[in-house]
Amino acid sequence: MERRHARYPFLDDARHAVGNAEFDLQSLAADERVRERASERVERALDDGTVGEPSRATRVELLSYPLARVLVSLVDEHVLTRKYARAEAATAHDRLADAENRRELKSARTERLTSEELLAEFDLATDVHTDGDGYRVAVGAYLPLAADMRGEEWRLVNRALSDGEVSISTTDLDELLRKAIERRVAEGLPLSVPDGIADALESTVAEIRERLAELDLTRDIDTVVPDRFPPCMKALLDSVQKGEHLPHHSRFAITSFLTSIGMSTDEIIDLYMVNPGFGEDITRYQTDHIRGETSPTEYSPPSCATMQSYGDCVNMDDRCETISHPMAYYEQALDDADEELSDWRDDEVDADDEAEADA
Ligand code: SF4
């Protein structure tokens, strides 16, 4: 078992090292140090997008990785799987850069993993060539790698293409390799976990679920696409816009959802204003309170369980079966969109511009 395996546990070599060590999952689940480090990997992924400080014991560090994947599988929430895979990839990326900066040191040399080795790991060695300033990637290899990248710059139409190869910078290559690591970590998740192991990990899984429920799932979202809202929020928004009277908990649910996806108080008022009798003053007061401007707390929208208990969970669809929070529904719906989504706020600005031009 080498230190390098523990630093980059997604590598095939590391997987073989775990296999050769002949540890069974039952004994890993019972090993307190491995279980704690595995749990830390997952919880830190939720908290700050890292997997935390590595254990000084190579054995614990390496074995905590397969157990962390088991924990993620048992929780089985799309948002957790994605955040965990991203955190493992980000940590590997940081370690690669750190080892590169310390390459003169003997300890760093033994842990170092070069870009060439990573390309070989992902079967890309023959598809990627350096061209002095940057790299050239065979278009057949570029397209699947870039498919999950966010940003117009990754679209093939925005890239220089010649002789079936796409030009990319060194930074781009780093980003593509990070995405390849992320995919490798998420590969095969959720795993099928035997009941005995699930029972042994029950309390650890419950803690992760609790952390997930408490988490402010709004950090990454600043996109308003009403078509992608969860069915409960679509129904509540529809009621507000029709001028129907909503009980306090329902109004709190829709307003906290809208603040959580990045809408300002004025934008929420604009969205509600389809119905002229909606009460601007009370909406402004409630929205400022929920977003924490006139109160000590920034409120998060209720979980699905709370929505169900108040009778606000309506029109459930297939995606609802896979999530436990309306924010997770929305985040997943945005991620799964095939086409470029248009933000409601941009549409409003365009409509205002057209109206001004017509006047
Ligand atoms: S399951 Fe959750 S997201 Fe779906 S409608 Fe009910 S409360 Fe909304």
Automatic annotation (TrEMBL):
Disordered: annotated span: 335-359
GO molecular function, one term: metal ion binding
Cofactor: [4Fe-4S] cluster
InterPro entries with a match to the protein in the record: DNA_primase_C, DNA_primase_lsu_euk/arc, DNA_primase_lsu_PriL
Binding-site list for [4Fe-4S] cluster: C232, C304, C313, C320
GO biological process, one term: DNA replication, synthesis of primer
Family, as annotated: Belongs to the eukaryotic-type primase large subunit family.
Name used for this protein in its record: DNA primase large subunit PriL
Organism: Halococcus morrhuae DSM 1307
